Amino acid sequence: MSGIVKSNAIVLRKKDLLGNSILITLLTESSGKIYVFGKGIKNITSRRLPNMQTGNYITAVMRSKGDLFYIQDAQLHSYFSKIKKNEVKLKQMYFFLYILEWILPENQNEKQVYDLVLLFLVELSKKELGDVQIIQFCNHLLELLGYDSTLQSLPDIINYVEGIINKKIPFFII
Hints:
This protein is an alpha+beta fold. It has 5 helices and 5 strands. The chain folds into 2 domains: about 1-80, CATH 2.40.50.140; about 80-165, no CATH class. Strand 2 (about 20-30) and strand 3 form a beta hairpin. The longest helix has 17 residues, at about 85-105.
């Protein structure tokens, strides 16, 4: 299947590749988690690079070729500046998005998860969330994905997620 795909998306991660390209992990409204190649995006004249920061809410225009997606254009809706200017909020955002990126299946429409993540980012931009609210968001995410959602503390959530993904969550994210 080839063609142009346009979807609202949340940038989960950006990884540099060789040359002027990057690999972007997006949570899209229509296709769930997808990986998108950004060829030439690191060129100094590229208007797409600033929009591809983790946690940004964008409308992405992508060209699909088989199972691969290539970013053509990205319109920024919000970069949640209040989150990115506050170190505590930034850590909370990275913690939640890290968990999401590792446990979310690829190429499956997860509209409820998308809505939850957008709500999380909006709430976090309004105010710093306490541990109880972070636990509630994490439990709701786990429940939507079919996992145990009765965890009572952040260490419980961290241990549970590390067991699912078989990987330690980096200390600088916690």
